[in-house]
Amino acid sequence: MRTYLDCIPCFFNQALRAGRIATGDENKLKKLLDEIGTMLRDIPLESTPPETGMLIYEKVRKITGKFDPYNELKRESTEKALALYPSLKNKVEKSNDKLLTAIRIAIAGNVIDFGVNRKFDIEEEIDNVLKKDFAIFDYDKFKDYLDKTDEILYIGDNAGESVFDRILIEEMKKPVIYVVREIPVINDVTYEDAIQAGIDKVATILSSGTSAPGTVLETCNAEFKEVYKNSKFVIGKGQGNYEGLSDEKHLIFFLLKAKCWVIANDIGVNEGDIVLKGINV
């Protein structure tokens, strides 16, 4: 997905939010916004938002001196998600369609996004998503490919959300490679975050090698690119992975909630809609 003009003020908002978590030094924050403004002037609209996000968060780390501003928030969100894990598993077990319920729960977890959302109620979100109609619902195709595959490449999104991913991974009952970010960016899931969520108990964890808040293949390591190229069933979780991979000529199922109108418009849905969308299927 390309960058839209409406993404530009969002870049500034994200940078300021991360900067304020990292430091209270107004001079550093002013320098951060000044340098991002200069940088954005030269970024083409053809680039994807995660490519720009990678550069922005490099600036945040460099200017504030804080390597992982969201570290404590990530740990807290994962702890809260783990506390919900038994009740969520119970919802799956009691449902008429366990796989679909697990997909809905995984999408409900997508609300844990500090790049977009300042406040959210995860329990309320779960209740809403369990009842909500899908705007795009490629469930039959998802099941067909799941039945035929020997292995799933599951590209994760946010810390905390990975607990909800774990529930879906357990329900799919196939070997899974779970992909995380190489270094911290916003609250995206890293290796350490995935371990805290218990992903290592249900999947093989693989770093994509990128520090982008999404999957930008040009910045990924050789191991991930090889696995991705050979995978016949890919799940891309969340908006950042949609932004980075939606123009790829590869079979991918995107699971997400459209949390901003720009992405909703690009997908062809309304803001707030939930999506199970397959491309090249």
Polypeptide structure, described:
A seven-stranded mixed sheet has the order 1-7-6-5-2-3-4, with helices on both faces. It is globular and about 55 Å long. The chain has helices at 7-22, 26-41, 49-64, 71-94, 98-108, 122-131, 139-148, 161-172, 191-197, 222-230, 238-245, 261-267, and strands at residues 134-137, 152-155, 176-180, 204-207, 234-237, 252-257, 274-279. The protein is an alpha/beta fold and 281 residues long. The relative contact order is 0.15. The model has no long low-confidence stretch (mean pLDDT 95). It has two domains: 7-64; 71-279, 3-Layer(aba) Sandwich (Rossmann fold), CATH 3.40.50.10880.
What's the order of the H and E elements?
HHHHHHEHEHEHEHEHEHE
Q: Which spans have pLDDT < 50 for at least 5 consecutive residues?
A: none
- In CATH, the architecture of the largest domain is 3-Layer(aba) Sandwich
Q: Tell me, what is the CATH class of the largest domain?
A: Alpha Beta
Count of DSSP strands: 7
Describe the largest sheet: 7 strands, mixed
SS summary, helix count: 12
Main sheet: which strands, in order across?
1-7-6-5-2-3-4
Predict the CATH topology of the largest domain.
Rossmann fold
Instruction: Write down the domain tally.
Output: 2
CATH superfamily of the largest domain: Uncharacterised protein PF01937, DUF89, domain 3
Any chance you could write out the topology, listing elements then pairs?
Elements: H1 7-22, H2 26-41, H3 49-64, H4 71-94, H5 98-108, H6 122-131, E1 134-137, H7 139-148, E2 152-155, H8 161-172, E3 176-180, H9 191-197, E4 204-207, H10 222-230, E5 234-237, H11 238-245, E6 252-257, H12 261-267, E7 274-279
Parallel strand pairs: 1-7, 2-3, 2-5, 3-4, 5-6
Antiparallel strand pairs: 6-7
Helix pairs in contact: 1-2, 1-3, 2-3, 4-5, 4-8, 5-6, 5-8
